[in-house]
């Protein structure tokens, strides 16, 4: 065989292997075709360090992370993940995330006590490459948050905890967004809507055009604040209708798995939920 022919065949084989690998990755993460960033809220693994949480998130086949304030960094660092992190702490977190091939996409749920603290939160997010801050601002802080979104080019997503928290009703979120930065939106928690007795699909429709982030879960009950997480697709969440509505709205953002049950050993619960979700998207 001529040397030139050998090189051509070797190149073709290399391209074929590369193509097969890319195709496999697309099949394993069908959400990417929708520009959905399926990841996890590190609060799911709140009993562990952030470093350990990253290991668990990685083992679930996820590449996007939402970090919560107050989690110990780990990997030899005893600091809490927050805007108060030292330069060394920030560098370590960036290193840990990069080594896993992950993206630190969101941070929260957090908030500031005044304008100065809000500024520190946004500056921290910008430095860490965080794109979305999930928050529940006081009414009097909404204009502060709006201005900081524009200043730092970081999005702020208003999160809903269950009734009687301030933002439990989508109408309250809509009022909060009126006349404010287009970089502000909603971080919709479908599970908390269920706990509040609200129809998740109807709530999504109310917030159309404003949804930029989601805490995703399925629960074993509806209208019950004691309802707990179950594997996605096996509970009371109308998951097919929720997915269809997000598709219809052309949602583009992070779906953050937040599994708040079986705290000591819920990694397999997240992995199963993610597998169920991806199978659903393939249907």
From TrEMBL:
InterPro entries: IolE/XylAMocC-like, Xyl_isomerase-like_sf, Xyl_isomerase-like_TIM-brl. Residues 55-279 form the Xylose isomerase-like TIM barrel domain. One of its GO terms (molecular function) is isomerase activity. It comes from the Bacteria. The keyword Cytoplasm does not apply. Residues 1-24 form the signal peptide. Gene3D superfamilies: Divalent-metal-dependent TIM barrel enzymes. Keywords: Isomerase, Signal. PROSITE patterns: PROKAR_LIPOPROTEIN (PS51257). This is Sugar phosphate isomerase/epimerase family protein. It comes from Sphingobacterium suaedae. The lineage of its organism: Bacteria, Pseudomonadati, Bacteroidota, Sphingobacteriia, Sphingobacteriales.
